[in-house]
């Protein structure tokens, strides 16, 4: 019966919206490390799910878009205690970023499985399986996004730009602050550099021991700039192998945090 079918589709859409909004808000909670209560997040997701009622109003596309923006602001306001305006806007941006990522991933899945997509509801041979997709796949997708975001944010906090001049040649490279770098030379911390095909004679040698073995490193005293701040006569040592940290050509001691 058409009416029963419509009610069934509405129930599926509403349930899907609730679960999606709940997952998105939980992701924002984890990414932004907000202090809130779970009941606020559940209530906010419920309000977001009610936004499906907007489809029954005679709204233009622009009006519908504006209402959806207002709903997203309301969801963030309800889910997390309001503090600074800047912090609130960051929460809203985070909500939109996670929703775009999730929506794009689900759209990709719909094209892979050859399904028809209506919003975030998918049909396969006339049978809806959106809840299955949301419940089983969405948490996996967003957990990966959260881990990627945190790793990227952590790396950004520890990344620096290192500049120096050695034997008349100027170098500019990405540097990573490694709190585990305990190498010292007569009480002075050491900056580790990877410069391929480096063959200059050292000013002095620095002995080292690591899990991989022991040996000596070519070392020099140079003036360096780290994020445009100058440091004079810092000890740098040349290593033979590239670092495992992505894009880093230098390892800085913890003092540069």
Number of helices: 6
Please write the string of helix (H) and strand (E) elements: HHHHEEEHHEEEEEEEE
The percent range for helix content is 40-55%
Structural class: alpha+beta
Low-confidence stretches: 114-129
Largest sheet: spatial strand order = 4-5-11-7-10-9
What is the radius of gyration computed over CA atoms, rounded to a whole number of angstroms? 27 Å
How many strands in all?
A: 11
Largest sheet: 6 strands, mixed, barrel
Q: How far do the termini sit from each other? A: 66 Å
Mean pLDDT: 78
The oligomerization state is: single chain
Strand content: 25-35%
Shape: elongated
Q: Which key phrases capture this entry?
A:
three-stranded antiparallel sheet; 257 residues; alpha+beta
Task: Give the helix/strand layout.
Blueprint: H1 2-32, H2 38-49, H3 61-79, H4 85-112, E1 116-118, E2 121-124, E3 127-128, H5 130-136, H6 138-158, E4 159-166, E5 169-177, E6 184-185, E7 188-194, E8 204-210, E9 213-226, E10 229-239, E11 250-252
Parallel strand pairs: 5-11, 7-10
Antiparallel strand pairs: 1-2, 2-3, 4-5, 4-9, 6-7, 7-11, 8-9, 9-10
Helix pairs in contact: 1-2, 1-4, 1-5, 1-6, 2-3, 3-4, 4-6
């Amino acid at each position: 019966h058409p009416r029963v079918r419509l009610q069934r589709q509405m129930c599926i859409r509403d349930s899907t919206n609730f679960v999606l909004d709940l997952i998105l808000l939980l992701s924002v909670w984890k990414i932004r490390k907000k202090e809130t209560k779970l009941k606020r997040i559940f209530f906010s997701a419920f309000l977001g799910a009610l936004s499906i009622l907007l489809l029954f109003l005679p709204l233009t596309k622009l009006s519908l878009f504006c209402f959806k923006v207002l709903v997203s602001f309301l969801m963030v306001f309800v889910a997390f205690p309001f503090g600074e305006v800047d912090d609130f806007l960051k929460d809203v941006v985070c909500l939109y970023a996670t929703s775009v990522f999730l929506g794009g991933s689900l759209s990709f899945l719909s094209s892979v499985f050859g399904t028809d997509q209506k919003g975030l509801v998918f049909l396969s041979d006339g049978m809806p399986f959106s809840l299955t997709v949301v419940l089983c796949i969405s948490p996996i997708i967003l957990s990966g996004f959260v881990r990627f975001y945190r790793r990227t944010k952590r790396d950004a906090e520890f990344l620096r730009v290192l500049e120096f001049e050695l034997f008349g040649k100027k170098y500019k490279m990405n540097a990573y602050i490694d709190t585990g770098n305990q190498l010292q030379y007569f009480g002075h911390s050491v900056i580790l550099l990877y410069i391929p095909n480096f063959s200059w004679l050292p000013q002095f040698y620095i002995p080292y021991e690591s899990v991989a073995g022991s040996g000596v490193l070519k070392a020099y005293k140079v003036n360096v700039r780290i994020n445009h701040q100058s440091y004079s006569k810092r000890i740098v040592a040349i290593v033979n192998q590239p670092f495992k940290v992505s894009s880093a050509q230098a390892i800085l001691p913890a003092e540069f945090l």
